[in-house]
Design goal:
Blueprint lengths: L1 H19 L4 H14 L4 H18 E5 L4 E7 L2 E8 L2 E4 L2
Antiparallel strand pairs: 1-2, 2-3, 3-4
């Protein structure tokens, strides 16, 4: 019985951790803008990416919140790119 209680407590803690660190749309936009700036070559591209990326990403991103994780859909240039956000990290699905 004691072993089962420990497992339930650990499972509850995992769920709380996932819920607490479920990324928001703003977290995703910040991350995407940083990725864009990191992938550019010149300082001008980095500056323009930093200035223009956030408003474009804000308009082109939708979020589906599943409490423990979020799905982000980025619709740019007829491309539908899907990311999963979990524990404040993002992974491209499509």
């Amino acid at each position: 019985m004691k072993n089962m209680a420990i497992k339930l407590i650990i499972l509850l803690l995992v769920f709380l951790l996932l819920a607490f660190f479920n990324p928001s749309k703003e977290d995703f936009i910040d991350w995407a803008a940083e990725q864009l700036q990191r992938d550019t070559n010149s300082e001008l591209e980095q500056f323009l990416g930093g200035v223009l990326a956030r408003p474009v990403f804000k308009l082109a991103t939708t979020r589906q919140d599943y409490f423990l994780l979020s799905i982000f859909r980025l619709d740019l240039n007829d491309q539908d790119i899907i990311y999963i956000g979990i524990l404040k990290n993002f992974f491209r699905l499509k």
